[in-house]
Amino acid sequence: MGRITLEAVTKRFGEVEVIPPLNLDIDDGEFVVFVGPSGCGKSTLLRLIAGLEDTSGGRILIDGKDATDTPPAKRGLAMVFQSYALYPHMSVRKNIAFPMRMAGVPQDEQDRRITAAAKALNLTDYLDRKPGQLSGGQRQRVAIGRAIVREPAAFLFDEPLSNLDAALRVGMRLEISELHNRLKTTMVYVTHDQVEAMTMADKIVVLRAGFIEQVGSPMDLYRAPKNLFVAGFIGSPKMNLIDGPEAARHGAHTIGIRPEHIAVSPTAGTWQGRVGVSEHLGSDTFFYVEGTGLAETITVRAGGDIDLHHGDTVFLTPDAAQMHRFDDTGARIA
Amino acid sequence: MATRQTAGLARLMRAPAIILLLIWMIVPLGMTLYYSFQNYNLLNPAAISWAGWFNYQYFVTDPAFMAAIRNTLVLVLGVLTITVVLGIAIALLIDKPIWGQGIVRILIISPFFVMPPVAALIWKNMIMHPSYGVFADIARFLGLQPVDWFAQYPLTSIVIIVAWQWLPFATLILLTALQSLDGEQMEAAEMDGAGAISRFVHLTLPHMARAITVVILIQTIFLLGIYAEILVTTNGGPGNASTNLTYLIYRAARLNFDIGGAAAGGIIAVILANLVAIFLMRAVGKNLD
Ligand SMILES: Nc1ncnc2c1ncn2[C@@H]1O[C@H](COP(=O)(O)OP(=O)(O)OP(=O)(O)O)[C@@H](O)[C@H]1O
Ligand SMILES: [Mg+2]
């Protein structure tokens, strides 16, 4: 079981309130991702859940029991750190065994769990190496192995993939998702990479300056962002945001339209502009269209084989059904 | 890597320094070796003659010799134990943010700046003196008989003084090691259920192993040659109770004017020091690579 509830949890460092009173429910077995810009308090929130930071107010419940003042080791949670935090003078086997040794798990049970974890994480050949003799991806797997063998109520990950290169990141992302499907244990995952958030999460929590801007499934956030911040944060490339008369024409202060919801034509359409930079990805092409008079650039996505070049005139037609409208406070107009 | 040509050039450029160092070492060592085989007493400097192994035999069969070896070992091991254990403890204490940290750190380092004879004199006359030392005052305040440190516990007193002098060095090296310990590792261990003691044993100590090795090696080199502190406090006595090898050699040379005997003692000391060094490198040197 791994149900985590935060009730009006607050965190202050001296005078600075990093987390204002915050409420959040994490269901058993859920994969929850915290996203938000740098410094918004994602790590702090995770460390509060882990017990590595003391709360300044509010309660943290784990499986319904008040764990606010429970020391980290007693909360039954396992954490994977960004720097891996492996014990450098211990072999991989000893690293993975460490939490079980501390908990007094019998030796044969330890061996059984180590073997199983090593097999699941492709570490069998490296068990007798020291962390210094492993690659970044292997170290990350050892850190995950050390978390798995404790059979925790929930896993906490703090940007576990940010030290890995792009290709390895995609691989590890899949491995962690598979792990979640297999173990069905609650996972709380911090990242500022919104692709990770979109692909892995059951539920995304978007944070800004300690406030929860929106909580929902990846597709909820994509389809119906609650406000301008979430609209701009979720989606890649970013949603186009348009103010002024064009927005007023739709009865809003600001309208938002995603690059994939704008049709491109060399001959006719609602808006007119010039092609600026274009990015050809093969399957897709992104055009940054200038001189529309709506916003500095409008990003649009087109098919891979469209024949438009720098300086060409283009016509853009937004899909009205996919348009998002926001009022002057930035909140979504239903 | 360097080509053969540049390697040759490098060797040529290094040569003057190495040759100078070699002369610096070889000449005194050679002269000592030479005198150790001569009958040469300053009371009768004209009568120099070949002595064979006599000086060595004389030095080794001196009843003070075994006592000196034992005292040297006690001195080195005692000071090492005190400085390493207390050094770790103090380093752990001042690594935590405490009020007035800067001042505390300077105070703890300051004994290292006091030269050995001065430190020994202060301890002798102001702290351990049986009538007007601080310890005597404390003893009288508690209604106890003051201890005459240098008469009753001569070697222990010297161990205390020398440990006081070397504690800052040990603390400083160990503190630097402690400060380079990764905070996330500690937090990971905390989450893994390791208590403060387990964390110290499984993480802190292995992390500090290298620094402890450095402290032991460097201190041993200096502690084998302790001399000034003995000279100004106990003069090696009572009897031979606080005579170490260095002091025994000094006694042969300056009190008995026996240059040959002192030289033989010096050579024996060099051999013993090298034995200790080899033993130490075997025992703890593996922590260094
Ligand atoms: N020990 C501390 N003392 C004072 N302020 C702190 C402390 N730790 C964090 N903060 C502040 O709290 C805020 C949130 O920090 P946090 O590390 O949670 O950000 P984050 O969302 O994880 O950012 P990033 O994506 O860069 O890791 C920051 O403004 C930071 O300066
Ligand atoms: Mg962070």
TrEMBL record, chain A:
Q: Which residues form the ABC transporter domain?
A: 4-234
Q: Which GO terms describe its cellular component?
A: ATP-binding cassette (ABC) transporter complex, substrate-binding subunit-containing; maltose transport complex
Q: One Pfam family for this entry, by name?
A: TOBE_2
Keyword tags? ATP-binding, Nucleotide-binding, Transport
Asked if the keyword Cytoplasm belongs to this entry, the reply reads no
* GO MF entry, a single one: ATP hydrolysis activity
SMART domains reported in the protein's UniProt record: AAA
Q: Which family does it belong to?
A: Belongs to the ABC transporter superfamily.
Q: What is this protein called?
A: ABC transporter ATP-binding protein
- Organism of origin: Paracoccus hibiscisoli
TrEMBL record, chain B:
Enumerate the Pfam families for this protein. Answer: BPD_transp_1
PROSITE patterns from the UniProt entry = ABC_TM1
Q: Which residues cross the membrane?
A: 12-35, 73-94, 106-123, 155-178, 208-228, 259-281
- Keyword Protease (UniProt): no
Similarity section: Belongs to the binding-protein-dependent transport system permease family.
Any keyword Isomerase? no
**Mind telling me which GO cellular component terms the entry cites?**
plasma membrane
Q: Where in the cell is it found?
A: Cell membrane
Task: Write down the InterPro entries for this protein, in alphabetical order.
Answer: MetI-like (IPR000515), MetI-like_sf (IPR035906)
Record-annotated ABC transmembrane type-1 domain positions: 69-280
Protein name, please? Sugar ABC transporter permease
Q: What is its main location?
A: membrane
What are the UniProt keywords, alphabetically? Answer: Cell membrane, Membrane, Transmembrane, Transmembrane helix, Transport
How is this protein positioned relative to the membrane?
Multi-pass membrane protein
PANTHER family named among the record's database cross-references: BLR7065 PROTEIN, INTEGRAL MEMBRANE SUGAR TRANSPORT PROTEIN
Q: Name one GO biological process term.
A: transmembrane transport
